[in-house]
Every structure is written in structure tokens, then in C-alpha cells.
Amino acid sequence: MIITKTPLRLSFVGGGSDIPSYYREHGGAVLSTSIDKFVYLTLNKRFDHTLRVSYSQTEEVETVEQIQHRLVKAILTKLGIRGGLEITSMADVPSRGSGLGSSSAFTVGLLHCAYAYLGVYKSKQELAAEACEIEIDILKEPIGKQDQYGSAMGGVNFIRFNPDDSIDIEPVVAPKGVIQAVEESLIMFYTGITRSASALLQKQSDVMASDQLKRKTMHRMVELADSMRRELTASNVDAVGEILHENWQLKKSLTEGISSGFIDDCYESAIAAGATGGKLLGAGGGGFLVFFAPKQKHPAIKLALSHLRHFEFQFERQGTGVIFHHH
Length: 327
What we know:
single chain, 327 residues, alpha+beta, 4-stranded antiparallel sheet, globular, fucokinase activity, ATP binding, GHMP_Kinase-Related, nucleotide-binding
């Protein structure tokens, strides 16, 4: 029995610049952190040759080819694992469309599990790279690369996506207490709306390829990832709210469907109650809203958004890990 625990991620700025159609031409950058909400995967040998895969549905099949879950099927196929296994997954948030990178956390976690089962060591960076290969190259998902690296590595990172497909992961180095101050200023809510990120990301990717103005917008979002890192290094915690606010206004302008009347109303209510900035996490359309505000304003923001579910979280620093391994 093997169990892995892989964190979800919260992306602050630069999201969208990690899509190949953009960074291969211009280079991209994001600033993100992993959080203490996890995807757990268990892998256990079965008594016979069959496969049982349990997630929001349960599949019992004879061969890997019969598995419906695309990620599970792709990983087992790629690693040459044939059968005689039971795989289960559990997550701290809804598995679909949360905006916290749960499907990439699932991919990283299952790869980690499968390699541990095979007795093969892979570094966190190798797991992230292989998760990207499975999701983007093999399954042709129109997604970026930040989620896989954010989940695998853990911590608060500035991640650069280079045109040659290499990736630089730089932990954000800030004076003592700065990261904690950012963490304590953030407040998150669940909108209750889930959606598929793929369709929205495909639209963003298409727009990025064809629209010069939208590309300019993305250039500015990449600059904001750089400036957020600079402000943190300079202990300027309050700048985070302003940067989030500008990034969100830019992101909304990229394509239809990223925001909605309902989400805009929630955002305006939080600003009126004292937030200095915020954003919808992930591709847009639903999932979680996060706001930056002085701690003393949090009760007023909770009151203003009492129709949404307040969601407690903290930053996480470990990344993906095997938490149980019994031969």
C-alpha cells in the first residue's frame, strides 16, 4: 500500500502565461504558492489481475485499456503497469473546476504513487515535468504548466517558463514575517460554481495566438509577477492587494466567460468591505475567490459575502510526498 499527499496551489499573478502558445514566443512567469489542501492517492496490490479505480465513480475492469479515467489510463499505460491494482483518490476540495489545480495535483500524486510502486525515485521536478507531458502532450489538454510545478514543488515560488521549454523555479525569498503577513491578509470563499477549465483555457489560448492587444495584456500580467516578487523582497506587503487587483482587471479582459455578473458583484462587495484586491482562482467562471485585505477587515468581508462559503487555508511548503509505503 502506497499513499501520496499532493498540495493544491493558489496562483497570484501571471496565470495564462504558462500556456505553450504564449511562453514559447514571449516567455512567461507566475507567482504562486501551494496550500494546505491536498489530493490523496492510494495504490494497493490486488489479489488478482483486475483493476479497481475509485474516484467520484468506481471502475472495475480487466485491463488498463478499459479504464475510463483518462489520467489514470495514461499514467498506467506510460509506465507499463498492466493490472492487479486498486487506485483510490480523495481530495479536500471538489475535484472538478475548483481553480486550485486539482487535476494536475492528481496527476503529480498518481505519478508519485506509481513510481513508488515500481521502486523508482523521481525528483519533484521530474514528476512535474512528466505530469505536464501527460496532460499537455499525451492528453492534449489546453492547459499550462504552472499547476504541475506548484503542486510538485510546494512553497511560494516564482516560476519562469522559457521559450525553449525549460522552467526555472525560484522560491520567493523575503525578509522574516513577510510571507506570513501575506498569508494572514488573504481570505478565500467558494462560489459554489464549478466549471471545466479546458474550454476557457482553449479560448484564452486561441485569443493569445491571434490578438495582438490580448498578448500585450498578458505581457503586463507577466510583469506583475515580477513586480510582486520585487515588492515581497522589499517587505512591501500592502502592494500585493494592488497587484492582484490590476491582474484581475487584466485577466477579465482576455476573453468572455472568465468573470460573470455574479462574480463581479461578489468582487465589488469585498472591495467595498475593505479588500484592496483579489481574484477568481484558476481559469475563471467559478471555483474560489480570494481577497487581500488587512486582517481587521476580514469580518466585514465575511459579512458582505455571507452567501458564499468561507474557506480556511494556510500556505504549504512541502510539495508532493509519499506519506505511507508498505510493501
